[in-house]
Write a structure and sequence with these properties.
By secondary structure, the protein is mainly alpha-helical. The protein has eleven helices and no strands.
Length: about 220
């Protein structure tokens, strides 16, 4: 018995378990899957092709994702997580709300300019999974929108932004940015994302009317000859 106890107490030799290996492998799978789905389309992408590219067995893919559907949706979710990370990183170093909004707009457009394949994934999700009540993009938007509304409430309280419903502001900004990435993708727009960000910010922040005309006009008013 003494010998058995000694063997049980003896530390096992070998390479220590890497607690982050699973996370890294999952990210590698999702990164490669996103590129394949964007290139071949959801229907034409075979998980064996993904396994071959990663030089792993097909069973490895299914240990992390139970089905191709789950893999695809996880890849789209990762796109939105990466977008949030880039926006957050872009705002680091500024305590001014307006400057943070400017940086966020630049980071958003730069993210999709650098990763046009991700726009394709958003398109495929809408086409392939119409049974979903809300696409992943809007799930993330709705989870994060309140922090932006709080920012606009702060700016309104400071007298730096017109007193108007913050929902209206975030909706207009969101629609402008969302529309821009799809127009860029479908038309192959080559205007630098920095210029597009400046254009959107200029129109949203300053409008298109002169100060004189802005005082005279009101939203929704129609002038008849």
């Amino acid at each position: 018995m003494r010998g058995v106890a000694a063997r049980l107490d003896k530390p096992k030799l070998g390479r220590p378990v890497d607690p982050e290996l699973g996370t890294r492998r999952r990210e590698e799978i999702l990164d490669a899957a996103a590129r394949l789905f964007a290139r071949h389309g959801y229907s034409e992408t075979d998980t064996q092709l993904l396994a071959d590219q990663l030089q792993v067995g097909k069973g490895t893919i299914y240990r992390y994702f139970r089905s191709k559907r789950e893999l695809f949706l996880a890849a789209v979710d990762r796109v939105m997580r990466k977008l949030r990370e880039q926006i957050d990183a872009g705002m680091v170093g500024s305590d001014d709300a307006l400057e943070r909004i400017e940086r966020a707009v630049h980071a958003y457009l730069r993210f999709f300019a650098d990763n046009p394949d991700f726009v394709e994934l958003l398109i495929q999700e809408r086409a392939q999974f119409r049974d979903r009540k809300k696409p992943t993009y809007f799930e993330h938007r709705d989870r994060n929108v309140e922090r932006w509304r709080d920012m606009y409430r702060e700016l309104i309280a400071q007298g730096r932004v017109r007193d108007m419903p913050v929902e209206r502001i975030t909706n207009v900004f969101s629609q402008a940015l969302y529309g821009t990435i799809f127009i860029n993708y479908f038309t192959g727009e080559h205007k630098p994302h920095e210029q597009q960000a400046r254009d959107i910010l200029d129109v949203v922040f300053h409008g298109i009317l002169t100060e004189k005309e802005a005082r005279r006009s009101r939203p929704g008013r129609t002038n008849h000859a």
